[in-house]
Amino acid sequence: MDDLNALARQQLDDAKASPHGRSAHLFLHDGPLRQTVIALIADAELNEYNAPPAASLQVLQGRVRLTGPGGSQELKAGQVAMLPHERHGLRAVEDSAVLLTAVPDVPARARGALHAAAGARG
Fold first, then answer.
1. The whole model's pTM is what?
2. Is pLDDT larger for residue 122 or for residue 65?
């Protein structure tokens, strides 16, 4: 079993040493499920990218701003957000580590159920 706090610390150390100010480590890959710890130093960002069909972002340390066509949302340590299904980006407000949980391939039948559930929450 991996220690998320230790992974976050290691990725933050790696991000500080990186010329791009970011680092990532895929630590769980089970069928379609993927979990990655991503670290960004303050003001570093991940440019806009397409979201997988099902994904969430949990802030382990720091504060980040999730950006997209609908505006931006700031998240702090301990908060979890479902990622938007549109293109979006991520910027660190301060040195931060996040846990990205993604299922990049969702069967069409399950995708319909995911969208229906998201609509019921929103």
1. 0.83
2. 65
